[in-house]
Write a structure and sequence with these properties.
The complex is a heterodimer.
Chain A (H helix, E strand, L loop, with lengths): L11 H18 L13 E6 L4 H13 L3 E6 L3 H4 L4 H9 L5 E6 L4 H6 L5 E7 L5 H15 L6 E5 L6 H12 L3 E5 L15 E3 L11 E4 L4 H5 L6 H8 L3 H6 L5 E3 L12 H4 L6 H20 L14 H4 L18 H12 L1
Parallel strand pairs in A: 1-2, 1-3, 3-4, 5-6, 5-8, 6-7, 8-9
Helix pairs in contact in A: 1-12, 1-14, 2-12, 6-7, 6-12
Chain B lengths: L2 E5 L2 E4 L2 E4 L1 E5 L4 E6 L9 E4 L4 E4 L1 E6 L12 H10 L2 E6 L10 H11 L5 E4 L15 H6 L4 E3 L8 H12 L10 E4 L4 H4 L4 E2 L2 H6 L3 E2 L1 H18 L3 E3 L5 H12 L4 E5 L1 H5 L21 H13 L4 E2 L8 H4 L16 H8 L4 H15 L18 E11 L18 E11 L2 E5 L2 E2 L2
Parallel strand pairs in B: 1-6, 2-7, 8-9, 9-10, 11-12, 12-15, 13-14, 15-16, 16-17
Antiparallel strand pairs in B: 1-4, 2-3, 4-5, 7-18, 18-19, 19-20, 20-21
Helix pairs in contact in B: 4-7, 7-8, 8-10
The chains are: A alpha/beta, B alpha/beta.
Chain lengths: ~350, ~425
């Protein structure tokens, strides 16, 4: 992996590698000193053109726990307001000599554009309605912990599908991992043409509740109301909200998910958000090891793990083999073979 | 007086071509004589047209020359150079300048700047003041300054009643040269297209970009056909992009409703799949559509439903296109590449290409007396000499426009303009602009 822009770019093997790596990084979290030297000397820029406290904080922590230098470049759209083009902004950041740029932008496609203007690895932290791949990966990681295996799981994603980068990323990732995905909501919140998507569409949440393993609720933004996409919040909740009553019809071992921040009382009732089947806080917690895994694959020696030729590269072979990427010793260098071994194990 | 001789070419005539030598009088700007090849002719300058066809100069119904207001993207001079290199001898300048071309003062500025251009600059004017869709521009006054086309291009006139009144008012105006006044419409119902930045469909769904449904264009095409029927006034429909629009225009023409239409090279060459790169060079309004729409546009051009190819030449500076897709301005270059793309991509006889590029747009623009052929003794020498077999590769930074936003970067096309004569003056010689 040289960058992560869309879950559509990930192979099944890439996903499995990331899950296994995230497991080992989760273990790091439990240590007294939850930090490894894997990305020592690397510089990661967090370029958030749109505010997002939780995603930025999660990436920030993940990078620091890998010993990377982190630079917060708050651009917040002020640069473009001053007339600077996106390209100018990116080239300015690039000129600082960075290794990775984590991009959040309100406009779809900006990470793809940015990747044409920088040699640094581009990691998409959410672009418009398009993709939010690390959210999908942390969702899959959380589900894997709960369900053991996502293959064959029945997942319903309910809400504002059209304006949701989370939905697009999760449809790609969940179906690639073998899940059956149903998208639920009023037609006004569905993308205009998804005939090619590997999903089922439903407008009837009630009919699905008893058969699904995972109920994934999306945030409803009030601006959709003013755009006339549904009549009232009350009516939305009555048809597509995860109310206490509907949660009662879910199986006892069903998993309830939400990417946050939640609108309690709109798409999810407060009581439901607080019940044990709801894994919202696990999702947040998963964000750190999963983003550590992504940063490691993109920037660390792990990035060679999926390139067969790398095995013969002297610089890789001659690097320090003595420790694993999650070794507690701050003096240790991460190990390529470890990542290779992880890949082999996960492919079986 | 000086004499320019065009020798060795095949001169285009209705239904065929003939080998002949043209004698051009640069003082009168007319064709003085057409003689058999090999006849003894004396000229001050001889242009070699061997291997080429000599065509009536092309006329573009739809160019954004950006002057006044955005001279960093294009000027009347640079735009006219691009036009001449593309074989055009006249272009209709769109009125969405800053300030808008809705007053005698601004039209006068454009006319003045056009006097030294490399082709005829025919200003169009806005239908409504400031293109705001609310108050009619002083159409009679602007007609007296030579304006023949009115359009709020960039946006359509949303108000049905105002559009009806504009048509009725225009129908009561007479021109000093007997040419017709035409109202030209950018067909887009804003309420339905907003906030779309590309065609609404499978690609917009995948890319997470807001779409404009085909119906946003088709609803206004439908309305304007109805208003043309109601008022008896010709409506010209700009840059048709959907199969539904083509079908409605075909039916309207069959029913005798006075409508005409144009289509652009990008709408018969490219689809919305190009937007997958998120490169705003592919952002344009109306947006690139589907394969089925492209096919319908091609059929419409072939059967005459669509009267003319227009470029919608829309230069933008690099920095304005180096923005996120949804924030970048729409539009792409067209003047230098249009004919080659049509020749390469459309399987049409040369006669039909000449109709679409020369005679029909010259008539629609009120320029039929000087442009659009036929090539005859005594007629103004607005001519383009094209090598139909020469291939070349499109490169934005080698185009004459100040901007370089061509969506056809790297595409190899057939058909290269060798010479262009504007009112008898060779303005392009051997594929180079003379000034």
């Amino acid at each position: 992996m040289r960058q992560l822009i869309s879950t559509a770019d990930l192979s099944r093997a890439d996903i499995d590698d990331l899950m296994v790596l995230a497991d080992s990084f989760a273990e790091v979290q439990t240590r007294d000193v939850p930090k490894v030297p894997a990305l020592r000397g690397r510089t990661v820029v967090l370029a958030f053109f749109e505010d997002s406290t939780r995603t930025r904080t999660s990436f920030d922590l993940a990078a620091r726990r890998l010993s990377a230098d982190v630079l917060n470049f708050s651009v917040a759209s002020s640069a473009t307001k001053k007339g600077e083009s996106l390209r100018d902004t990116v080239e300015t950041i690039n000129a600082m000599g960075i290794d990775a740029i984590v991009v959040r932008h309100r406009s779809s496609g900006t990470p793809i554009q940015i990747s044409r203007w920088t040699d640094a690895a581009v990691i998409n932290a959410g672009d418009g309605w398009h993709q939010h791949p690390t959210q999908a990966l942390l969702d899959a990681y959380t589900l894997r912990q709960r369900l053991g295996d996502i293959d064959g799981a029945k997942i319903a994603i309910c809400g504002d599908i059209n304006h949701s980068r989370v939905a697009r990323s999760n449809v790609d990732l969940f179906t690639k991992m073998g899940a059956e995905v149903t998208l639920v909501g009023p037609q006004t919140l569905m993308p205009p043409d998804i005939s090619g998507w590997p999903v089922t569409i439903s407008h009837d949440l009630d009919s699905l509740l008893s058969e699904i393993d995972v109920m994934y609720m999306l945030r409803i933004q009030t601006e959709r109301l003013s755009a006339g996409l549904f009549p009232t919040v009350r009516e939305y909740r009555s048809r597509w909200g995860l109310t206490v009553q509907r949660a009662g019809e879910l199986r006892s071992d069903a998993v309830i998910m939400h990417p946050g921040p939640m609108n309690r009382g709109v798409e999810i009732d407060p009581e439901v958000a607080s019940e044990p089947r709801c894994v919202v806080l696990d999702q947040v917690a998963s964000g750190i090891p999963v983003r550590m895994a992504v940063l490691y694959q993109v920037l660390g020696p792990g990035r060679f793990a999926n390139e067969e030729a790398a095995v013969d590269r002297p610089d890789v072979e001659e690097s320090n083999h003595s420790v694993s990427p999650t070794d507690g010793s701050v003096e240790a260098e991460p190990d390529t073979k470890q990542a290779m071994a992880m890949k082999e194990a996960s492919c079986q | 007086m000086s004499v320019v001789v065009i020798s060795g070419g095949q001169i285009h005539e209705a239904g065929g071509q003939r080998s002949a030598t043209l004698i051009i009088n640069t003082e009168t700007g007319t064709v003085d004589d057409i003689v058999a090849d090999g006849a003894a002719v004396q000229g001050d300058q001889t242009l070699d047209a061997s291997g080429c066809v000599v065509l009536p100069g092309f006329v573009d119904l739809h160019s954004h020359l950006r002057q006044p207001g955005n001279e960093a993207a294009e000027t009347i001079e640079t735009g006219s150079r691009a036009a001449a290199l593309g074989g055009y001898t006249a272009v209709v300048a769109m009125p969405n300048t800053t300030p808008c071309m809705d007053s005698a003062a601004v039209i006068g500025e454009v006319v003045n700047a056009g006097r030294t251009a490399l082709c005829e600059i025919k200003p169009s004017a806005a239908i409504t003041m400031g293109r705001d869709g609310e108050t009619l521009a002083p159409m009679a006054e602007l007609v007296d300054l030579g304006v023949r086309m009115f359009t709020d291009d960039g946006t359509g006139v949303q108000d049905d009643q105002l559009m009806r009144r504009a048509l009725e008012y225009a129908s009561s105006l007479a021109t000093d040269d007997g040419t017709q006044i035409i109202l030209s419409q950018h067909c887009e119902v804003d309420a339905l297209s907003h906030p779309g930045v590309m065609h609404e469909g499978a690609w917009s769904a995948k890319l997470g970009l807001a779409g404009q449904p085909a119906e946003a264009e088709e609803l206004m095409v439908m309305r304007d056909i109805a208003l043309a029927r109601l008022t008896g006034m010709n409506v010209h429909l700009q840059h048709l992009s959907t199969a539904g629009s083509v079908e409605m225009v075909r039916a309207a023409k069959a029913a005798g409703v006075p409508v005409t239409a144009e289509a652009t090279p990008h709408h018969f060459c490219l689809t919305d799949a190009a937007c997958a790169s998120y490169d705003p060079v592919f952002k344009v309004h109306p947006p690139l559509r589907t394969d089925a729409d492209v096919a319908a546009i091609r059929v419409g051009l072939a059967d005459g439903t669509i009267d003319a190819v227009a470029t919608d030449h829309a230069p933008h500076t690099p920095d304005s296109k180096e923005q996120p897709f949804d924030q970048a301005p729409p539009g792409m270059l067209g003047l230098e590449t249009a004919f080659a793309l049509a020749l390469t991509e459309l399987d049409l006889p040369l006669d039909r290409l000449v109709e679409m590029f020369s005679s029909a747009p010259a008539r629609l623009a009120g320029l039929g007396a000087r442009h659009g052929g036929p090539i005859e003794v005594g007629r103004p020498a607005n001519l383009t000499v094209v090598d139909l077999e020469q291939t070349w590769t499109i490169a934005g930074d080698r185009l004459a426009s100040l901007a370089s936003n061509t969506p056809f970067e790297g595409r190899t096309v057939r058909g290269k303009v060798r010479h262009t004569l504007f009112n008898g003056e060779p303005v392009v010689v051997d594929a180079k602009a003379v000034r």
